């Protein structure tokens, strides 16, 4: 069986019995989606765990990261102030421990009743003063997706939809992904989606999008050490860079514009 046959089939044999995870993600440049800021959402719960996750990223070859804590009304009521405060705390710990790691921050915005207010506020936590990471509920489709995309664009920003492969309600409607792209919204892949970590249907959706060249960014979406260990397994089994070669992955050039949130 070939590489794609192994991926689409149920057999996840290792490409090499001696495969290693070390530096396998160096080609990405920036991990542009993770939850490693301490005590601010459902990701890292304290500085010690954040440091552990950062060291794990370094093992994988990632030395530059944009933390994207959730902004979700009534669940994770984060603001630019709460996010920048958590960032400063972690940045100080990195400095005190002499850990060389570029740590920036942005946010992952849920499409909910408050998102329009955030867009109009001009107080968004963006990536490079341009990119805005958005997400939807996994339970039901956000009917306002396309209007939100337009609102973001009207402000001069570029929307990125996080992990589209994980929205189960789209799995039988592949055309919706092309509609989202045609509306000017970029797509970001969760790296664990190419395995069975989120289930067989998510894996199939992610690989279908990959084969169609639909992804613009990749991210770990790492919340905790379970994600970290699973990432190590995935990159040991698969040549992720080769897998994504037909996709215009832009992580390495994410901050080609003026950097905003730099320590």
Automatic annotation (TrEMBL):
Enzyme Commission identifier(s): 3.1.3.48
The keyword Cell wall biogenesis/degradation is annotated on this UniProt entry: no
Catalytic activity field: O-phospho-L-tyrosyl-[protein] + H2O = L-tyrosyl-[protein] + phosphate
GO molecular function terms noted in the UniProt entry: protein tyrosine phosphatase activity
Enzyme class: hydrolase
Pfam families per UniProt: CpsB_CapC (PF19567)
Keyword list, A-Z: Hydrolase
Phosphoprotein is among the record's keywords: no
Family: Belongs to the metallo-dependent hydrolases superfamily. CpsB/CapC family.
Family matches, as PANTHER family: TYROSINE-PROTEIN PHOSPHATASE YWQE (PTHR39181)
Protein name (Swiss-Prot/TrEMBL): protein-tyrosine-phosphatase
Organism: Sphingobacterium tenebrionis
């Amino acid at each position: 069986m070939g590489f794609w046959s192994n991926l689409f089939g149920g057999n996840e044999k290792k490409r090499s019995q001696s495969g290693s995870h070390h530096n396998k993600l160096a080609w990405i440049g920036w991990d542009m989606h993770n939850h490693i800021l301490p005590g601010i959402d459902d990701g890292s719960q304290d500085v010690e765990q954040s440091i552990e996750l950062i060291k794990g990223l370094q093992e994988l070859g990632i030395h530059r990261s944009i933390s994207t804590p959730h902004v979700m009304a009534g669940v994770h009521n984060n603001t630019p102030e709460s996010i920048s405060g958590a960032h400063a705390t972690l940045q100080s710990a990195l400095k005190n421990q002499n850990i060389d790691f570029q740590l920036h921050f942005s946010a992952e915005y849920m499409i909910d009743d408050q998102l329009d207010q955030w867009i109009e506020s001009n107080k968004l936590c963006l990536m490079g003063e341009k990119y805005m990471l958005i997400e939807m509920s996994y339970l039901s489709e956000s009917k306002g997706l396309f209007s939100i995309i337009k609102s973001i664009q009207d402000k001069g920003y570029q929307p990125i939809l996080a992990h589209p492969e994980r929205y189960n309600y789209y799995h039988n409607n592949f055309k919706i992904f092309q509609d989202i792209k045609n509306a000017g919204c970029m797509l970001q892949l969760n790296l664990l989606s190419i395995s069975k970590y989120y289930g067989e249907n998510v894996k199939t959706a992610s690989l279908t999008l990959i084969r169609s060249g639909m992804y613009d960014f990749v991210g770990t979406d790492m919340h905790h050490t379970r994600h970290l260990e699973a990432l190590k397994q995935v990159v040991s089994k698969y040549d992720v860079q080769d897998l994504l070669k037909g996709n215009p992955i832009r992580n390495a050039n994410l901050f080609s514009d003026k950097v905003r949130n730099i320590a």
